[in-house]
Write a structure and sequence with these properties.
Layout: H1 2-23, H2 26-56
């Protein structure tokens, strides 16, 4: 959980910085810091749903033989 919170803080900081640097407006930077991570979270959820569905439809591969040389 600490790693998640740390990443969320950095994500919001980057969103704020990019918005502020591009516009010079603190309000735009603040709005981006809140809205962009929320949108990415929703997009990630749907991405995971599609990804999992796609993986279920992929043919299973047989395990590859171990080509290691015995010691």
């Amino acid at each position: 959980m600490k790693k998640t919170m740390s990443f969320a803080t950095i994500h919001m900081g980057v969103a704020f910085s990019v918005g502020y640097l591009m516009t010079g407006d603190l309000a735009v930077g603040g709005a981006l810091a809140l809205v962009e991570p929320l949108c990415n979270t929703v997009a990630y959820y749907f991405h995971e749903q599609v990804w999992n569905r796609w993986q279920r439809h992929q043919p299973r591969r047989e395990s590859q033989p171990d080509h290691t040389i015995p010691a």
